[in-house]
Amino acid sequence: MISRFEFPFDHQFATLGNQFYTQIPAEGIGKNPYLIHSNSDAAPLIGLPTETFQSPEFLDYFSGNQSLPGSHPLAMVYSGHQFGQWAGQLGDGRALLLGQVRNADGDLWDIQLKGGGKTPYSRFGDGRAVVRSCIREYLCSEAMHALGIPTSRALCIVGTGESVQRETAEPGAVFTRLARSHIRFGHFEHFYYQKNHDALKALCDHVIDEYFPQHQGHYDRWFADVVSQTASMIAQWQAVGFCHGVMNTDNMSILGLTLDYGPFGFIEAFDIDYVCNHSDHAGRYAYDQQPMIGLWNLHALAHALSPIIPSEVTTPILSEYDLTFNHHYFQLMRQKIGCAPSDSTHDDLWIDLLTLMASQRSDYTLTFRRLADSFTTPISWTSLFRDPGPATEWLTRYHYSLRSLGAEDRIITSLNQVNPRYVLRNWVAESAIRAAEDGNDYSEIDKVLQLIQTPYDDHLDAIHYGDPAPDHYLGLQVSCSS
Ligand code: AMP
Ligand code: MG
Predict the structure, then answer these.
(1) Ligand 1 centroid to 325 CA: how many Å?
(2) Residue 78 has pLDDT above 70, yes or no
(3) Probe target for ligand 1 pocket from 83, 114, 122, 297, with the most ligand atoms within 8 Å of CB
(4) Which residues have C-beta within 8 Å of that of residue 89, sequence separation ≥ 6?
(5) Ligand of minimum distance to the alpha carbon of 78
(6) Burial class (CB in 10 A: 0-12, 13-18, 19+), 51
(7) Cβ distance 134 to 149 under 8 Å?
(8) What is the pLDDT of residue 3?
(9) pTM, full prediction
(10) CA distances from 383 to 102, 223, 273, 339, 374 (A)
């Protein structure tokens, strides 16, 4: 543990030089910062003692009012394809990398403020973030982590006391997130489109040296790993019913982390065409498009890397993507029905189940979660379907097949270890937002955090948080502005 705020900084990204970023202090927008929430689960990643959460300096540092001693605040420059179109230069328009910390395990972690003010890359934006979107990102990144899905992490939300204009005036906040890296596909595209091949190579070398040291001297193997990690991450999204919402290349992590939570959503009533982003009118980032978009984005990355890795090398690697994705996705789906990851003999069961779920709009999370109960109380499962007839038929077939595998108790236990009881449903996030915004009550964030941090436990005292929206939340529209 460090002594209070003396972080073991190791500013590796900054050593790349100033064509990669603009050095800039936070604007200091929160004159009266107040703590909304801090996450004792993430603090150890940067060696931060949790006692510091209560100190006044904590608020000053993590609102951007004061520079963290030894920090090297910078806004990164990157570019990207947005909704399939080349968007040119983007960059950290409201994010600030305070610095990188080398923790006791030797891992480098970025500390990044989001909403700390304008940067040279803010374009038309105000550099701010609102309490609503900070709570959503805070809770969802921790939910994803607990589900075993690679993601950025959440350290804290500090309210600024400032009002920020979105569709309406909303309370402002600064969110601090941690990630092994915030380098995106768009970083590589930026230098490729600038024809700055030296910088492109320096960036590749930096990423390989720091995050893929096993591939030093082998750009091809590194690229194959990026393809594989991206495919694996998206397979996990699909298996848990997560929709990212804005899979632009500037939101794609080079480390295969789920990054930049905006209008995300977990599917409730199953619909493969689910679009969580209301401004995505064409459904480019619909749930069932995500695997294909992952590949599209990797093609954009391969194109940007072409001066370093020729297309004759990247093309065959990209052609492996579908196989890798299917390998991971099939393994996960088999486990969701209680089969061994490599046992393909019952694939028809989960494939038919998805068809049934889609035709009857059953709740994605509960349909899998209640499979364990279905052995003793079939009605708890069939009641999730509008027409119990086909559901009962499927369930009979399922029980028959699984009983043939033997060891029913073991299967039932395994089902509850892979099928979460809790995901971050929009209405649950909204309940935490409402309590925070309307009553300055942050206990709901605390409660939801506890549930999503242990999503496989039943939490019988809070079980309704794992259910679809109660009536007073029906028709909830989640704003896509952040
Ligand atoms: P996103 O798709 O939300 O990850 O953001 C796309 C780009 O817009 C990134 O360059 C962001 O930094 C920038 N951006 C988003 N919101 C704001 C804002 N309120 N102020 C400045 N830049 C922003
Ligand atoms: Mg982004």
Answers:
(1) 29
(2) yes
(3) 122
(4) 77, 78, 79, 121, 190
(5) 1
(6) exposed
(7) no
(8) 62
(9) 0.97
(10) 51, 46, 23, 24, 11
